[in-house]
């Protein structure tokens, strides 16, 4: 998982730049719409919606856009007839790397066609539902920055129902828990004075594929970039490990 975690960190560092692209605005707006539609359209009583709004604000999305997305999700936005649905696609990348794609779309045929082309042009193939999802388990993750005392982090994590944590940088940690316990963990960490900068659901691979060949690595990362660039795609997860030096050289 180390290689993929490193890649995730690189992507987070680019978040401020990426937020200037319409793609990110579309992604986050759709996440807000779905959250408002699947629960109450009030962030105080809807953890998923509250989290989506926090991410949108951190990315610099204007409040007007956020309010419009909430209204669309609640069905209160005049003239909006689009119906978004959440779909998970699965496939294989170069070297047999398992890939999960989470999408929000108003046209599943269009999305599937775009994904199929992206896979075929980059050394992979789109598979059937269930072909790789069995290799992953979904967890809740709190990203905590400015960690000064690991012992205190451990105590707060246990109190909040965490399963484990990993230090991804000198003072940054990722704290993992069951999906149902994510809100409790996030609030406990905040109450204990920790700086929780992001709260998310993440697919964690049970096993990984080592990618050390330069050409294979480049093709794989190009495939992931291509998938992430599609408007309907919200998130891409893969089960590869890659040496940090190779990752840095390509990135």
UniProtKB/TrEMBL annotation:
Any one annotated GO CC term: cytosol
Domain TACO1/YebC-like second and third: 84-240
Domain TACO1/YebC-like N-terminal, residue spans: 5-76
Transmembrane regions: none
Record-level GO BP terms: regulation of DNA-templated transcription
Keyword Transcription regulation in annotation: yes
InterPro entries for this protein: Integrase-like_N, TACO1_YebC-like_2nd/3rd_dom, TACO1_YebC_N, Transcrip_reg_TACO1-like, Transcrip_reg_TACO1-like_dom3, YebC-like
Domain of life: Bacteria
Gene3D superfamilies for this protein: 1.10.10.200, 3.30.70.980
Keyword Transcription regulation among UniProt keywords: yes
Pfam families in the record: TACO1_YebC_N, Transcrip_reg
Subcellular location: Cytoplasm
GO MF annotation, one: DNA binding
Principal localisation: cytoplasm
Residue ranges the record marks as coiled coil: none
Key words, A-Z: Cytoplasm, DNA-binding, Transcription, Transcription regulation
Protein family membership: Belongs to the TACO1 family.
UniProt cross-references to NCBIfam families, sorted A to Z: PRK00110.1 (NF001030), PRK12378.1 (NF009044), YebC/PmpR family DNA-binding transcriptional regulator (TIGR01033)
Protein name, per record: Probable transcriptional regulatory protein DSM106972_079120
Organism taxonomic ancestry: Bacteria, Bacillati, Cyanobacteriota, Cyanophyceae, Nostocales
């Amino acid at each position: 998982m180390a290689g993929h975690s490193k890649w995730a960190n690189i992507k987070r560092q680019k978040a401020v730049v990426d937020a200037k692209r319409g793609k990110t605005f579309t992604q986050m707006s759709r996440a807000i719409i779905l959250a408002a539609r699947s629960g109450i359209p009030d962030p105080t009583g809807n953890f998923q919606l509250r989290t989506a709004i926090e991410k949108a604000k951190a990315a610099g999305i204007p409040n007007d856009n956020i309010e419009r997305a909430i209204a669309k999700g609640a069905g209160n936005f005049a003239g909006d007839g689009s119906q978004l649905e959440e779909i998970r696609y699965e496939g294989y990348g170069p070297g047999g790397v398992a890939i999960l794609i989470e999408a929000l779309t108003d046209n599943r045929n269009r999305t599937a066609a775009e994904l199929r082309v992206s896979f075929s042009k980059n050394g992979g193939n789109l598979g059937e539902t269930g072909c790789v999802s069995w290799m992953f388990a979904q967890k809740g993750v709190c990203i905590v920055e400015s960690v000064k005392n690991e012992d205190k982090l451990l105590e707060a994590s246990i109190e909040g129902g965490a399963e484990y944590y990993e230090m991804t940088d000198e003072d940054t940690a990722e704290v993992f828990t069951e999906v149902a316990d994510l809100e409790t963990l996030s609030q406990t960490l905040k109450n204990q004075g920790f700086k929780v900068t992001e709260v998310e659901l993440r697919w964690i691979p049970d096993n990984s594929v080592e990618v050390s060949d330069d050409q294979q690595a480049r093709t794989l990362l190009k495939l992931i970039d291509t998938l992430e660039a599609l408007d309907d795609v919200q998130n891409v997860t893969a089960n590869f490990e890659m040496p940090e030096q190779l990752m840095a050289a390509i990135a």
